[in-house]
Amino acid sequence: MRKIMLVLAAFVVVCALLTGCAAGQPSAAGKTESAQAKDGALEVKVLDVGQGDAILIRTADEVIFIDTGDVDEHPKLEAALKKENIKTVDKLIITHPHADHLGGASVIFKNCEVKAVYDNGEPTTTKLYRDYLKTIKAKGIPYKALVDGDVLDFGGGVSFRVLGPTAQMVKEGGKKNGKPNLNINSIVGRLEYGDFTMLFTGDAEKETEKAVLSHHSAAEIKSLVLKAPHHGSKTSSTAAFLKAAAPEAVAISCGAGNEYGHPHKEVLERYKKFNIKVYRTDQGGTIAVISDGKTYNVKEEK
């Protein structure tokens, strides 16, 4: 009987010691979660959605989308939402109503709770655009047209400063050689987080860049990372604009073997001339930009 009691006592002590060790050390799962946590970090992902723009931004407080890709790329956007576990979008920004930027909005509306929608306020007559407006109204989502001078709070110390278009430009309607061009009034905005800056440009063209330069100083435009205007087209990325923005890296969103030949050779040469490191979704897949507000890094996720 005494031997049994001694064995039981030893068993209790061993259990207590093991329990104490377990409580004092994180489990393997705990270590994984800790390594994945990005407290206080900003994450920008230029998603690989073919020939279009869809950019996911995560701050400490909010999830933001700038553009949504094209209609025929819905499966890629849906896969990205699932992979990134996105169920709520605090702000959806549509830079302009071309299909390769607006086309995936229905996917966002279907799969996520969207808390606010912003665009440039320039209308078009397409069914895609009309359905987009109907959905916003039907769901009662707050809506605002952004113009030069507006500032959005992305939470976590991150802000988005709109550099164009001006209200007058939207009123006049974007025109190129006298013909309507929805690219001209694309929303251009600078994301700011501590010392980190990133410039978003939609499908801005030379006329857009000229307008931004005329209304803002180089200091207001300068950014460490540039989202290439118009998928790296020769219609954009003028030397004057690149000189003012002075980016260290550029992210080009374009589809492999696209019919437009984006990015154009002369633009790539211009980026090289300005010593800008080039990242392309057609070659490296989704482009992830991570910053703690002091430093940043860029990686490809193909």
Structure commentary:
By secondary structure, the protein is of the alpha/beta class. It is 35% helix and 26% strand. The chain has helices at 2-24, 28-36, 74-84, 99-102, 105-111, 127-139, 167-172, 206-215, 218-221, 239-245, 265-273, 281-284, and strands spanning 42-46, 54-58, 63-68, 88-89, 91-94, 113-114, 117-119, 143-145, 151-155, 158-164, 175-176, 179-180, 188-193, 196-200, 225-227, 249-252, 277-280, 287-291, 296-300. It has an eight-stranded mixed sheet. A seven-stranded mixed sheet has the order 9-10-13-14-15-16-17. A two-stranded parallel ribbon has the order 4-6.
For the largest beta-sheet, the strand count, sense and barrel status come to: 8 strands, mixed
Q: Give the class from helix and strand content and strand pairing.
A: alpha/beta
CA gyration radius, whole angstroms: 24 Å
What is the average per-residue confidence, as pLDDT, rounded to a whole number?
Answer: 89
